[in-house]
From TrEMBL:
GO biological process terms, semicolon-separated: amino acid transport; cellular respiration; erythrocyte differentiation; mitochondrial transmembrane transport
Membrane topology: Multi-pass membrane protein
Cell compartments where the protein resides: Mitochondrion membrane
InterPro entries referenced in this protein's UniProt entry, alphabetically: Mtc
Name listed for the protein in its UniProt record: Sideroflexin 4
Key words, A-Z: Amino-acid transport, Membrane, Mitochondrion, Transmembrane, Transmembrane helix, Transport
Origin: domain of life: Eukaryota
Molecular function (Gene Ontology), one example: monoatomic ion transmembrane transporter activity
Membrane spanning residue stretches: 137-158, 170-192, 230-247, 259-283
GO cellular component: mitochondrial inner membrane
Amino acid sequence: MDPNLLHWRSQGQSFLSRVQIWLNLLDPTVLLSSDAEIERSHSLLGGREKREKDAPALTLALSSVHADSGAVLPLVFRPPALLPISAPLVVASFLPHNTVKPALFWQFLLQSYSAGFNYANRNSSSEQGKQTSVKQLLLIAGTVSYATCAGALPQIFINRLGVRSPPIQTFFRSILPIPLSAALAFFNVFTVRSEESETGIRVFDSDGNPVGISKAAGEKAVRDTALSRAALFGTTAAFPNLLVLLLKRTRLFQRNSLLVAPLRHISVAFVLGLMIPVSFSLFPQLGTIKKEELEEDLQAAAVDGQLFYHRGL
């Protein structure tokens, strides 16, 4: 089992401990480290004592190295890069556009980046030595295309239907994006990582030894990650929109309507920043699956009643 996963097993079992770990790992300054520094840090991690003594190396490895392949993640798809890259895209996608084209443009950028992040941080334990298939590339392209069009639906409805009523515009601009953002985030993870459910992922026993490939574990890993991403983008859409709706009723914002736009932008970025470590912590990185949920040929290996797997991110 990779040293990264061993750390999650020993330190990341409770929700609060996982939040604490992620707050440390999401420090954007680790993005300044070179690939050589990251590989050196990962190679230094061995036993538990080494991991505890060399905390900076551990942080660098956990935030920059893929737990299955041991390869350095692309810079833009490392967890610390998620907030600085996605925040402008999320803010822009929530803007009240006048036409459909800018809505499609920002949704395309957001969904493309989300698909790339989901794919780069998948569980790749069953793909060792394999190249990305044409089927996977087509699946990613289809996911981005569909999610882009679906994400722009509120603006499409407003323009095509010629909506002028303020209450209906409020529904399309502030209410509909909440469930839509959550659903598209779930869909993006679920489709981009669908191969894990089809082919399975590697599972480990309590000693960290690989015991086989499990489709049931793959389905659980993808489902849990999709739910966490839905929580991230759904909450990011909900809180700022509902806050603006409430504040628009106050005298201050009725007299100073120009305050609404900066408040919306700041609150979107703020909530996104808070929700990233929270959503990453909703489920353990080193997940467990009960013996009765496993395939029959793997149940004998679950001597402790469960097996472990890398959930991905």
